[in-house]
Each structure stands twice: as structure tokens, then as C-alpha cells.
Amino acid sequence: MVVGALKKASIPQNGVGAFVLQCKRLDFHYCDWAGSSRGMNVFLRNALPKFARAHPEIEIHVSPRPRKHPVVRGHYINGREKAVCVRNLAHSQVLKKVELLRDASGEKLKRTTKPVRSLNESVRGIWSPFHAQGENKWKL
User: Fold this and answer.
1) CB 24, CB 59: distance < 8 Å
2) pLDDT, tens digit, for every residue of 72-99?
């Protein structure tokens, strides 16, 4: 008996062995003086330490940006970045925006043409009129 090697190596897919979070870094830019950064300042003081402890795999940078609106910027492992302006938002809304950036993949938004997209072939195969049985064999 001859032992042959596999013809196709397994394709790595996120979530099949280990899940790799796509967001690698979050940058928080805020202003100490401006009123539009009020919610961001409360978030940085109260909720950010808990968020950082819960997600040690994400690098967090906090930097002041005087006389500018507050911005949260996410950097992803595919090289892209997304920025969200959080001016005049409450600290709970800032947390929702941060979670949105954490859960995003970094890819551009795409219009979906089909409801289901898969990397695997169809289990049932491709339909052909020659597969039909009996009297419905040639009716399309």
C-alpha cells in the first residue's frame, strides 16, 4: 500500500481553529478644554481602564489633541484604519463606537448581491435539465 500526500492543504479561515481579532490598535484623540470632548473625557477616566483590561490583545494609545474634536481611530491587521468622530456623544455612546471599531474587520463596506457567500462548493452540485426524472425531463 502506497501512502500519498494530501493534494490540497487546508486553507486557514478565521474562527476555524483560533479566532484572531482584526483590530490591533485603538487611538483615542481628545481635547481637555473643548465641550465636545466631555463624553470622551468621562469615557477615558471611567470606562477605558475596564475596556483595556477586558481586551489585552488590543494596543491602546491616548493622546491629547488641543482645539480639535475627539476621534477614535482603529488600526487593523490588514493595514487599513477607520476613524470615528465622537464629538458631543455621551460616554455610553462613545463605548458603543469603540465596540463597533473593535468588532469591525477593517475591510471596506461592500454591497452584497447574494444573501449567502461561501468558500465551499455546493453540496448538491450544479443543476442540469438532464438530471430530471420521468415526464418532467425536458420541461424547463
Assistant:
1) yes
2) 999 999 999 999 999 999 999 999 999 9
